[in-house]
Amino acid sequence: MQARKLAVHGAFEFTSQTFSDDRGVFVAPFQQQTFQAAKGGPLFSVAQSNHSVSRRGVVRGIHYTAAPPGAAKYVYCASGRSLDIVVDIRRGSPTYGTWDTVLLDQTGFRSVYLPVGVGHAFVALTDHTVMAYLTSAPYVAEQELALSPLDPALALPLPDDIDPILSERDGAALTLAQAADRGLLPDFALCQELEARLGTPAQAPHDLTGTRT
């Protein structure tokens, strides 16, 4: 597995080695040794795993968890093809307002690590695109926030041949500037503190009714 720093501070792309034979392919999307060498510490204690299936054109995000408590994510595409988008929405970050993209598919076998406070979105490029997530915190509806993926100031690189399909929540989400004006964005220094605490035992589980991503 190889690691690459993304343009967003603290975010990484990981590319897995594949093993193929006449039966198919074997791949390990997460490998502790490579992750620890890149990030400088172990993976967070996993509180929840998520799985979404999307048809072509679906755009999910920009989603983030209020900090505190904050949440880190490790994301990969188990089937299909997606354009994964990492957005720095942390006030005071040296890369605030910056985004980066990673193509996730069954050719490159890449994964993405999103540190605490960073926004996440993706575009499904094929039908039956399956995204898998490991998260450091359980889903709590009132702590999950969204920004508009169509914010012209961010100018996310949504493919020209895609007519974005958004949820009602994402379609009505605030722009980055509106969220900043309302004090809804994570603070970079606090996110760094929360990031340093990752690896402690997960919180007690919450009622997951209504979980979405």
TrEMBL record:
<keyword id="KW-0413">Isomerase</keyword>
<comment type="similarity">
    <text>Belongs to the dTDP-4-dehydrorhamnose 3,5-epimerase family.</text>
</comment>
<dbReference type="InterPro" id="IPR014710">
    <property type="entry name" value="RmlC-like_jellyroll"/>
</dbReference>
<dbReference type="Pfam" id="PF00908">
    <property type="entry name" value="dTDP_sugar_isom"/>
</dbReference>
<dbReference type="InterPro" id="IPR011051">
    <property type="entry name" value="RmlC_Cupin_sf"/>
</dbReference>
<dbReference type="InterPro" id="IPR000888">
    <property type="entry name" value="RmlC-like"/>
</dbReference>
<protein>
    <submittedName>
        <fullName>dTDP-4-dehydrorhamnose 3,5-epimerase</fullName>
    </submittedName>
</protein>
